[in-house]
TrEMBL record:
Record-linked PANTHER family: FC RECEPTOR-LIKE PROTEIN 6 ISOFORM X1, IMMUNOGLOBULIN FC RECEPTOR
Signal peptide location: 1-21
Lineage: Eukaryota, Metazoa, Chordata, Craniata, Vertebrata
Protein name per its UniProtKB record: Fc receptor-like A isoform X2
Residue ranges crossing the lipid bilayer per the database entry: 230-251
Keywords: Disulfide bond, Membrane, Signal, Transmembrane, Transmembrane helix
Classification via InterPro entries: Ig-like_dom (IPR007110), Ig-like_dom_sf (IPR036179), Ig-like_fold (IPR013783), Ig_Fc_receptor (IPR050488), Ig_sub (IPR003599)
Positions of the Ig-like domain: 21-105
């Protein structure tokens, strides 16, 4: 009786250990509900006692996509065609039996277009007047909200806003800075953001050559302030040279005329 009980216990423990060893999990890294075209993804097949595994197989929508001795399937550049239902299996060195993982869905969507930020009215701004920052996108019907930023910090709050216009009710010196915007939409409870728009610098100064990178904007136009100074100094130099030449030749001509008159009056004496 005791031998029978021990035998049963051994069978139960063996079954439990075998079942535990057969657990396999497929995982996406980074882990998200939605991915954007162009992003990189690592699909990993996790199993207990990996040293005893001979090979791994990855499946998409029921079809095998890769069989390898590595537990990693890399996708360095996702496309929408990568969307589908994935699972993996492995085969141990001790047997030809394979164990299937849980299935997991990969959702890949197109990136949102880059928005454009417009400012109305344009610089220079006037104290205590309204300024509108307008975030425009090519696909407004697909957008769920907008986010506006000043000097890298969001000014629309954590929830963003549904309107594409951010209003500065009364412009003042504290409003000066670099602004940009982003659009977003929500897919499967995940917020998908667009790339950042180009930056716009707000100021009330008539001439302000500071850029949003913290450096002066180099303006090469001949009508720029530096260009006017340069060409002005060159022009003044040329005028001075012409005046000196005119004075020199004027003196020379006067001396020649005096000599001629002197020569004409001498015979009469």
């Amino acid at each position: 009786m005791a031998v029978t009980v021990c035998f049963i216990i051994i069978i139960i423990l063996s079954t439990a250990l075998t079942g535990a060893a057969q657990v396999v999990v497929i995982r996406f890294e980074p882990e998200r509900t939605v991915y954007i075209e162009g992003e990189a993804l690592t699909i990993r097949c996790l199993a207990e006692k990996p040293s005893n595994i001979r090979s791994y197989s990855f499946f998409k929508d029921g079809s095998e996509t890769q069989k390898t001795n590595s537990n990693i399937l890399s996708k360095p550049l996702l496309t929408r065609t990568d969307s589908g239902l994935y699972f993996c299996t492995y085969t141990r060195t001790t047997s030809n039996d394979s164990t299937e993982s849980n299935p997991i869905t990969l959702n890949v969507i197109e990136p949102l277009p880059v928005p454009t930020l417009r400012v109305f009215p344009s610089n220079p701004q006037t104290e205590n007047t309204e300024v509108q920052l307008i975030c425009e996108t090519a696909l407004p019907s697909t957008i769920h909200g907008y986010r506006f930023y000043k000097d890298g910090r969001e000014v629309t709050g954590t929830a963003g806003q549904k309107d594409n216009v951010f209003v500065i009710a009364e412009y003042n010196s504290l409003s000066e800075g670099c602004y940009f915007c982003q659009t977003f939409r929500v897919e499967l409870a995940q917020e998908i953001k667009s790339p950042e728009s180009s930056m716009r610098f707000l100021t009330d100064k008539e001439i302000d050559r500071r850029g949003c990178d913290g450096k002066e904007i180099q303006i090469d136009s001949v009508f720029s302030l530096q260009g006017i100074k340069l060409y002005g100094s060159v022009l003044v130099g040329k005028i001075l040279v012409l005046l000196l030449l005119s004075l020199f030749f004027g003196v020379r001509i006067t001396l020649i005329n005096l000599r001629i008159k002197k020569a004409e009056t001498e015979p009469q004496r």
